[in-house]
Design a protein that fits this description.
Largest sheet: 4 strands, antiparallel
Number of strands: 8
Low-confidence stretches: 1-16, 20-26
Strand order of the largest sheet: 1-2-3-4
Shape: globular
Number of domains: 1
Distance between the termini: 33 Å
Mean pLDDT: 80
Length: 118
């Protein structure tokens, strides 16, 4: 396990989620997005075409959280902790709001959701 903060910080900066130029919006792929506020925290919930919750993003005071919902739990690349994207993944922008946009990078069954702050 790497406990060197400098190495970990460098690893975070290396993995960058590119801003996609999707041809179609997420709505055409059956995604349903719901925005709501709870206790001063803004939430964005994404459901697939069957109505199953895929992920919930929470946002407050400039900080994003990926809430653990659904099965399997979605892999979410946060602004402060970037995940590696699937090789050759296709980008679909599923949500674009005032504070951030949300893009799904997928290849087959593998997917990573990426938050882009506004």
């Amino acid at each position: 396990m790497n406990t060197n903060v400098a190495d970990i910080d460098e690893a975070v900066r290396i993995e960058v989620c590119p801003r996609p130029q999707p041809d179609v919006s997420g709505a055409t792929h059956g995604w349903r997005v719901r925005e709501y506020e709870d206790g001063g925290v803004d939430h964005v919930e994404v459901r697939d075409g069957t109505g199953r919750v895929q992920l919930v993003i929470a946002y407050a005071a400039g900080v994003f959280w990926a809430l653990h919902v659904g099965f399997p739990t979605a892999r979410v690349s946060l602004p402060n902790w970037r995940l590696k994207l699937p090789e050759g993944a296709r980008a679909t922008e599923v949500y674009a709001g005032a504070r951030f946009s949300l893009t799904r990078f997928s290849k087959g069954e593998e997917a990573v959701w990426c938050i882009h702050p506004a």
